[in-house]
Amino acid sequence: RSSASEYLDNILTGNLRKRLMLVLEDMPFEEKVRKAHVQLRSRQRDVEETLLELINDDDQVVSAAAIDLVRELKLESLEDDVEHVLAHRDAKDWYVFEAASWTLAARRVGEARRRDLWLEPLPAVEIAARLRRLPLFASLWVDELFRIAGTGRQTRHDAGHVLLQEGSTPETVHVLLDGAVTMRGQGNPAREVQAPAPLGFEEALEGRPMAETVRCATACVTLSAPAEAMQALLADNTDLVEGLFRTLLEAAPADAADRRTVIKGADLQDLQRLATGGLTAVEKVLVLQAVPVFARVSAEELVQVASIARETRLEAGAPIAAAGDGASIVAIITGELAVEPSTQDPRDPGPRAQTLTAGPGDLIGVYEAMAGLPFGRAIHVTRAGSALTIERSDLFDLAGQRPALLQQMFGALFRSRGPEPVAG
Q: Which pLDDT score is estimated for 409?
């Protein structure tokens, strides 16, 4: 932190330097606010005065979010100002009109009664607030949340309506915004899922049939989009890909905490001889074809992945990563790596208290790299060998240009979550 602050202090100039360095300085928040007012030669404002300024902001996303905060904080003193915005705002600022109508309706009839009476689509500001509660969307900028809210299709469904049918491959992905659904597969008990929740995302992205039927348990509101549109959105949005993988990690059972760190594969005995004299581009493709995650990726896409894969020599005893380091994908060709117990909680008696081993054909760091998370455990070499390393930034740059690569990787990853890690 101190090095970064010193670097910025040296390269920034003028007002940008003064304002940014103030934000970065390590001091109590109240002191930052006081200094900011001194720098800007402005007086401190209370919450109501600040919101009054923001609900009239030219940016309709800012204005809509501020109006919704008026509703959330129940600031009756600003009700007339929200009415004024509703009456005089430019007609093209639809987000603002929605938010103002939603806020005033809650004030006049109450939140619960408004839910029963409101027949219009939910306002974008409300959808954005609900989407933000999901790990899938939590890392997106607010403007992006509003864009998704505005482009998706809102639909109301009666209780009993089937959203997704077991055995059918979904052509549409859904986000449950309001209500509850039951999910039941053949021979398994039904389980209830409350809003907000993503429905059918994995199956749609992978192109595989649903394992469960999803039926509305109550009247429901969903935001839906064609699977192809979601695939294109993922290809264009790194934050959304990270959110998807964070969702997968959170949904994993507790006893599978480390499957994401070490994905077990088949032994690469037939390919180990390739690592003796350095790998050609074609040999990198052969290695990638033999490891999980990339085994289902087409040859055309693998050629592109091979172009960003770097051959790495593994020296016995050498560290690969410390706990907290940014993650890269490591595909082991020869040798062996040890993934040390987590240092997050030394009292943890679960799987994270074990040392994991990774050998030829195994992958390390796939989920962390795709989710934008650091390694949770230190990794070092226990037996010399070689590996292919794919940097996260290079993979995301490539995936942004090739949507088919992401879809094929998703399919392989969803299928690879079953194998257990091997403890040393």
A: 80
Give the Cα separation of 261 and 249 in Å (integer): 11
Other CB atoms within 10 A of residue 14 CB = 7
Q: Are 134 and 247 in contact (CB under 8 A)?
A: yes
Q: How many residues does the chain have?
A: 424
Q: What is the pLDDT at residue 345?
A: 43
Contacts of 140 (CB under 8 A, 6+ apart): 131, 132, 148, 237, 239, 240, 243
Cβ atoms of 327 and 261 closer than 8 Å = no
Q: Which segments in the chain show pLDDT lower than 70?
A: 40-43, 235-236, 248-260, 267-268, 270-272, 274-277, 342-353, 411, 414-424
Q: What is the token pair recorded at 328?
A: 């890269």
Cβ neighbours of residue 234 under 8 Å, at least 6 residues apart? 205, 240, 241, 244, 403, 406
Distance in angstroms (rounded) separating the CA atoms of residues 260 and 249: 8
Q: Model-level pTM greater than 0.70? A: no
Tell me which residue has tokens 């998704």. 148
Q: Are 415 and 255 contacting, i.e. CB atoms less than 8 angstroms apart?
A: no
Q: Between the CA of residue 123 and those of 93, 129, 135, 146, what are the distances in Å?
A: 12, 10, 21, 10
Per-residue model confidence (pLDDT) at position 268: 66
**Structural contact between residues 369 and 329, judged by C-beta atoms closer than 8 angstroms:** yes
Which amino acid, one-letter code, is at 194?
Q
